[in-house]
């Protein structure tokens, strides 16, 4: 962990907070800097949370539009990235729920590309598939397993694993406690180990 | 972790959990932990977690599309020029019935589309002439008005048709035009036909033009359609 959350009183050193305050004070160019600096982060988080759905581009735009609309009432109470993660999480959950209401219950909620369930992916045993195909299967399996996690578990795991986010900040994003986040991530990993059991078995065999 | 987990297992799993908090978790050192010599379960758990870390690391880093930043900034500029209502409706924090935003936005879209339709060009002075023709009936006693309300659309339309028909039959001779339309020197324009159509609408003859029921409107439209067809047939015969 590169940072603890104990220094939560002072965010003046956070470039995102500085730009947001400048934008609030009327500096329009500060918003451009925010978009340029944080677009990759928002895009990555949405891609990992939602899979490769076409709606991601719209959601990135929606996230920054919410930043614009919050301009007048913004108060730095966390790192800027934490605040933005919270916006993205709310948008992503809304999108998941919207999609769930559109898709019939017997269809899996996978991404828009590749296999839609782990059952379609087989761990190669007898044959000799190319290394590339095998790798694609593993990546698809990991994506599907992450997609299958409950939303809060999924977001907590993604933020911790791929966005270097301390548990205390994840707690702010999910409006929860640090202890609850620890429990969420523990359960997320348990679920992933269960979902990916055949792949883990092969990974362990390969490592041995 | 269950309460039945032995204390040494609990301690080891705490260490494991702490190590996993690091995004680049280094679990190898834990493999030398002395607890593992006597605990195959914790040994298996460590191996599974190491394998899971390797699987999670296979996910590629998402690449930001080149044009996305430009699109966001462009949308911001569009957003600044939007009416406040649009901005308000797009705020998900507002509690609202499901589908409301979509319906309201559809209505706005319809309004925008309708605004593109050019307005009907009404001849100057037409409304005054129509009101002038209606004036005697507006002054009639209440009972007469009630009776008139039933027959007036038909009568007025017939009167108008009669006048137009006489004019069409008379050629160049000066014949008094129907009061409601003023002098005409050629085939009635589309605007005039539209007024004729309106005169057949019974609801316009009441004190509150918006009080007419849907049935009234449907009936009056049928009547006026018939009159129009008759009129058109007459003018075609004349031609």
Structure description:
The complex is a heterodimer of chains A (208) and B (239). Chain A is mainly α. Helix content of chain A is 65%, strand content 0%. Chain A has 2 domains: 11-113, Orthogonal Bundle (Rna Polymerase Sigma Factor, Chain: A); 122-208, Winged helix-like DNA-binding domain superfamily/Winged helix DNA-binding domain (Arc Repressor Mutant, subunit A), CATH 1.10.10.10. Chain A has 9 helices and no strands. In chain A, α2 (28-50) runs antiparallel to α3. Among the domains of chain B are: 7-56, no CATH class; 126-238, no CATH class. Chain B contains 9 helices and no strands. In chain B, α7 runs parallel beside α9 and α8 packs across α9 (214-238). Chain B starts with 6 loop residues before the first helix and ends with a helix. The interface between A and B is large, with 47 and 33 residues.
Question: Main attributes?
Answer:
heterodimer; A: 208 residues; mainly alpha; Rna Polymerase Sigma Factor, Chain: A; Arc Repressor Mutant, subunit A; 2 domains; 9 helices; B: 239 residues
Question: Percent of residues of chain A in beta strands?
Answer: under 5%
Tell me the radius of gyration of chain A: 19 Å
- State the share of residues found in helices of chain A, binned by percent: 55-70%
The CATH homologous superfamily of the largest domain in chain A is termed RNA polymerase sigma factor, region 2, helix turn helix motif
Distance linking N and C termini of chain A: 30 Å
Silhouette of chain A = elongated
What ranges of chain A have pLDDT less than 50 throughout 5 or more consecutive residues?
A: 1-8
Main β sheet profile of chain B: none
**Which CATH-level-2 architecture of the largest domain in chain A?**
Orthogonal Bundle
Poorly predicted segments of chain B: 173-182, 206-217
Main sheet: strands, sense, barrel of chain A: none
Order of helices and strands of chain B: HHHHHHHHH
**Biggest chain contact:** A-B, 47 and 33 residues
Count the E strands of chain B.
Answer: 0
Q: How much of the residues of chain B is beta strand, in percent?
A: under 5%
The CATH class label of the largest domain in chain A is Mainly Alpha
**Quaternary arrangement of the chains shown?**
heterodimer
User: Structural class of the helices, strands and pairings of chain B?
Assistant: mainly alpha
Q: What is the mean predicted local confidence, pLDDT of chain B?
A: 69
Helical stretch tally of chain A: 9
Nearest-integer average pLDDT of chain A: 84
